[in-house]
Amino acid sequence: MAYEDHLAGQILAAHLEEGSLEPGREIGICIDQTLTQDATGTLVYLEFMSMGIPRVRTKRSVSYVDHNTLQTGFENADDHLFLQSAAARYGVYFSRPGNGICHQVHLEHFGVPGQTLLGSDSHTPTGGGLGMLAIGAGGMDVALAMAGAPFYMMTPEVMLVRLTGGLRPWVGAKDVILYLLERLKVKGGLGKIMEYGGPSVKTLGVQERATIANMGAELGAWSSIFPSDEVTRRFLTAQGRGSVWVPISARGGAEYNDVIEIDLSSLEPLVACPSSPDAVKPVEELSGVKVDQVAIGSCTNSSYRDLKLVARLLRGRRVNPEVSLVISPGSRQVLSMLAKEGDLADLIDAGARILEVACGPCIGMGQAPPSGGVSVRTFNRNFKGRSGTRDARVYLAGPQVAVAAAVTGRLAHPGELGPAPNIAEPEKFLVDDSMIIAPPDSGKEYSVRMGPNIMPLPELEALPDSLRVRLLLKLGDNITTDDILPGGARVLPLRSNLPAISRYVYELMSPGFADEAAKEDAVAILGGENYGQGSSREHAALAPRYLGTRAVLAKSFSRLYRANMINFGILPILVTDKEYQQVGEGDDMEIADLHRAVAEGDKVIIKVPNKGIEFAGRLELSIRERQILLAGGRLNFEGQNLAGEA
Ligand code: MIC
Ligand code: SF4
Is the dihedral of CA 4, 561, 59, 143 positive or negative? Predict the structure, then answer.
């Protein structure tokens, strides 16, 4: 079987810089485009600046401001100025606050089929809707890609999702990905690229494909990708970018590691129940659940097509008096078109609360639901506490189900609203690039503005040969980065202030963790399966490291979190269920002979003197990862080399 026959394989082969394409082997690929958003971007640019490189070396790098747009103090506004000035200095396009959510704006203005995109946000695979190989990564990996370094990954397995049949009325793209999440669960995509094909791909527009590719992040997959075809060409032409279109699809006879068939006509409107995107049920099984809030928006479902549908459904109707409906459009282009075409008035007249064009409630930036309340959201994550209300019950659904809930005040099949409207893609979008600032030819005369909330990166010491760590926390399966370091309006403004944000580490699970950690020389954490799933935020590794975390023991790790740990010199140690059961909070652990083990071994011997036991934790590391860990992190290992080259 030729790996290059797949669509994903073709793009990987064309970008291969190191290694060979054999599943499970490490490769380095060349990155054409990068994207950053403000909440992860400040660290990315601090990291990039520390490399001493005068200008980005990608084909295109874009810096977005979409997460931290609520300015309750100077912090976020200062971050915006830092990002804008760094963009000018280093040759990066800057999408101003108010222009939209990075993934939506990137589809509209920058995405190019067949190219690679690395973004410091886990939903970067949204670009797969356009036939890009788009991957979410930690900020350090993105900073290095901007510096021209390859991005390292394990050669993924490729799973074909073969689409047949046609979606029935009231069923949408969100239901396709919710169906897959129900079938494969949040770990089902680990180590894989989800490649979409089959006769019915052509029935889905680019925005629908983007919804599916976006939420493929919740499967834990490296990426999701659709072919670039006539549908893609029409979308790019409507965006005034037809000239970047190229066709790409899998070659006939391509063989896959796995194939899943979905007959689209068999799907029904689905909902993910609290508090995991894979707890999926048909909405009809939940009908009658009383709803307090409906939130429409996020990078999953806030396109022109989605909001046009919402407006059409709300026309002449009123939001139920017991429901608060909030809508955050995905981009300025979407909002402007809705305004010019009269749809905005329909939303306002129905009683929707129109929010800023941004991530907003999706990352807990306002609109927390009432205590114990039920919120139905068109977003991609419903982890406990992410909405800002710890005991809220958050359901994820497509816009059709969201409108039905907003109007009826309960979970209901959208068919209750009458016949399903048909929404056509426009021939032409109203394209306006004026909120995107292109970088000057030379940034030399621009200086970077750093307000008082922007703290320098910490220096991380090299790995010692022996460690004594106290196990401060024992956690269960599927711990998310929202559990490790929450988002929301209180914490997000501290993303560029490591000492301040580290106070919030494990705040929701173990209040006082930061103080406990301060009493120890070094600490360790124990997790179950899929530790660190969810966002790409490298703060969730760097802040615990700053508090003295030197090792995380777990049954398995999410790939993004694992990479971030290694980048900041935290040891990822794999343990069996038996070992997991044996140790507990408060245990001291001694790990000796680390240099040799990390340099070449596949085990570390862990002694737990207070329990009189010892066991061998597993190290599954590439040669490069070993070197990074020994150096105490990625910047120590690689940054200086790059500066030297420059
Ligand atoms: C998210 O959806 O969790 C975020 C906020 O977009 C994160 C990035 C971040 O934490 O800044 C992500 O998905 O990577
Ligand atoms: Fe923003 Fe939510 Fe998308 Fe993350 S998932 S990029 S917070 S809209």
Answer: negative
Domain ranges of the chain: 3-266, 270-415, 467-645
CA distance 632 to 594: 12
The 10s digit of each residue's pLDDT in 593-631 is: 999 999 999 999 999 999 999 999 999 999 999 999 999
**Residue ranges in the chain modelled with pLDDT below 70:** 1, 639-646
Q: For tokens 């890009």, name the residue.
A: 132
Ligand 2 pocket check for 362: Cβ under 6 Å: yes
If one residue of 40, 494, 505 were mutated to test the ligand 1 pocket, choosing by the most ligand atoms within 8 A of its CB, it would be 40
If you measure from the C-alpha of residue 359 to the centroid of ligand 1, how many angstroms do you get, rounded to a whole number? 10
pLDDT at 639: 61
Radius of gyration of the chain (CA): 24
How remote is the CA of residue 219 from the centroid of ligand 2, in Å? Answer: 16
CATH ID of 467-645, from 3.20.19.10, 3.40.50.2300, 3.30.450.20, 3.40.1190.10: 3.20.19.10
What residue's CA is closest to ligand 2, atom 1?
A: 359
Q: What is d(CA 214, CA 123) in angstroms, rounded to the nearest whole number?
A: 5
Please report the pLDDT score of residue 163 as a whole number. 98
Give the mutation target among 37, 65, 122 for probing the ligand 1 site: most ligand atoms within 8 A of CB: 122
Q: Rounded to whole angstroms, how far apart are CA atoms 450 and 46? A: 10
Predicted local confidence at residue 638, as pLDDT: 81
Give yes or no on whether 3-266 and 467-645 have one common fold: no
Q: What is the pLDDT of residues 137-181, one digit of tens each?
A: 999 999 999 999 999 999 999 999 999 999 999 999 999 999 999
For the Cβ of 483 lying below 6 angstroms from any atom of ligand 2, the answer is: no
- Phi, psi torsion values for 94, nearest 5 degrees: -120, 120
d(CA 70, CA 180): 34
Q: Does the model's pTM come out above 0.90? A: yes
The pocket around ligand 1, CB under 6 angstroms, is made up of 39-40, 67, 121-123, 136, 363, 487, 534-537
Centroid of chain to Cα 633: 22
Q: Which of 379, 491, 492, 495 to mutate to test the pocket of ligand 2 (most atoms within 8 A of CB)?
A: 379
Q: What is the CATH number of domain 270-415?
A: 3.30.499.10
